Amino acid sequence: MKKYKVGYTAGGFDLFHVGHLNLLERCKQMCDYLIVGVCDDDYVKNIKHKEPVFKEDERVRILNALKCVDRAELVNFEITDDKMFALKKFHFDVLFSGDDWKGSERYNKTEADFSKVGVSIEYLPYTKGISSTDIKKKI
């Protein structure tokens, strides 16, 4: 039996690479059902200040094709920015996030909010040596 029933993570997932796959496989190892929020093109352009290489519907399709992902769905700024909105939409019992967020003001608040409703946060390490930004530079 896995530690959690429903897990949730979100990201842009542009230029899908092995680091993304490693993250999603780690998430799936800890939960029975994994939901992945895919940030819409507006979020990628206006918040991350990057031009997406692949359109939002293509990124959702790629993630839905992975056996470690049970459901991928497009998410807007509100759901991406406020994890309580994500919780209301997806009803998960664990949020998976990169370990670079641990201890940040934003995630300390999220941890406090989640503790009141019995939801956990698992911080996972990024795969070293690979990133979409580095891939874009090489291309």
Question: Any overview of this molecule?
Answer:
With 139 residues, this protein is α/β, with parallel strands linked by helices. It has one domain (4-138): HUPs (Rossmann fold, 3-Layer(aba) Sandwich), CATH 3.40.50.620. Helices cover 42% and strands 23% of the residues. Strands 3-2-1-4-5 form a 5-stranded parallel β-sheet, sandwiched between helices. Strand 4 (94-98), helix 6 (105-115) and strand 5 (120-124) form a beta-alpha-beta unit. The N and C termini lie far apart (43 Å). The model has no long low-confidence stretch (mean pLDDT 93).
Name some characteristics of this structure.
139 residues; alpha/beta; 23% strand
Spatial order of the strands forming the largest sheet: 3-2-1-4-5
Distance between the termini: 43 Å
Biggest sheet architecture: 5 strands, parallel
- What is the number of strand segments? 5
Q: What Rg is obtained from the alpha carbons, in whole angstroms?
A: 14 Å
Mean pLDDT: 93
Secondary structure class reads alpha/beta
Structure summary:
The chain has 139 residues and is of the alpha/beta class. 42% of the residues lie in helices and 23% in strands.
Can you lay out the helices and strands and say which pair or pack?
Elements (H helix, E strand, L loop, with lengths): L3 E8 L6 H13 E9 L1 H6 L9 H9 L6 E5 L1 H5 L1 H8 L3 E5 L6 H11 L4 E5 L7 H7 L1
Parallel strand pairs: 1-2, 1-4, 2-3, 4-5
